[in-house]
Amino acid sequence: MLRICALNEDSDDSSSCSDNENASEPKDAETAILSEYLDALKLKDQNQLDKALAAFLKLIDSEVLINITNDAQNKLFMIKYNCHRNIGLIYKEKNDSYLALEHLCKAVDMDETDVYTVYSLAKLAFSIGQIHIAKICYEKCVARNPDHWPSLEGLLQLFCETGNVIEAFAWAMHCYRKDSTYKGAINVLAEIKTYFLPTVPFLEELFQVTFRKDEALKQCTITSKHGYFLPRLLDIS
């Protein structure tokens, strides 16, 4: 409990009281913010998304979180990060993609160690045509976890759908080396062998691979008219 100073106390006691009050203020603010954050989380867990969203937005607009320094060891910093993260995920669930993108970007700018959040941002960015953001985030995920297959496949799909044959070939070979049974890589390589056959010797020399000598890849064929590469990019029907 905060000590209340009487007006007739001597100056030394008054100064001591003031120091105690000032020291307790940051701790009280942290406790209040943490309590409000936990309440917001509870609302989200109860699927009261509008109320949870309002609570998270109120928190990030608070003076305490606005002025917080960038320190991952600071509890308030992590609360601010998680507020932006939860706001982004709620907006995503509400199909407000651009506000979701804004807040997930802010969260990842604060802390990019959570692969799930970075991948969520990558997938969202790719879905709305923000290819540059998607590529960076997929690459961050793979850098942190080389076996994060959703991001490995995300990059493969990104290279194919943007018509980047060289990157698609290199990434498909990378995935194939990691798992020779991975159908995504095999299908992409089959499409390259079919649609871009004249470029294959150049690609093999560029990346020092023996694509055409691999027995499994020799047998791979396209099994679907609508594969990884968009037909409009290949000018085929």
CATH architecture of the largest domain: Alpha Horseshoe
Low-confidence stretches are: 1-11, 14-18, 230-237
Strand coverage percent: under 5%
Q: How many whole angstroms does the radius of gyration measure?
A: 26 Å
CATH topology of the largest domain: Serine Threonine Protein Phosphatase 5, Tetratricopeptide repeat
**Major sheet, described briefly?**
none
Fraction in helix: over 70%
User: How many domain regions?
Assistant: 2
Structural class, from helix and strand content?
mainly alpha
Average pLDDT number: 83
* Fourth-tier CATH superfamily name of the largest domain: Tetratricopeptide repeat domain
Number of helices: 13
Distance between the termini: 76 Å
CATH class of the largest domain: Mainly Alpha
- Coarse morphology: elongated
Describe this structure in words.
This protein folds into 2 domains: 27-145, Serine Threonine Protein Phosphatase 5, Tetratricopeptide repeat; 148-237, no CATH class. The chain contains 13 helices and no strands. It has helices at residues 11-45, 49-60, 63-66, 75-93, 97-110, 115-127, 131-144, 149-161, 165-178, 183-195, 200-207, 215-218, 231-234.
Helix and strand arrangement:
Blueprint: H1 11-45, H2 49-60, H3 63-66, H4 75-93, H5 97-110, H6 115-127, H7 131-144, H8 149-161, H9 165-178, H10 183-195, H11 200-207, H12 215-218, H13 231-234
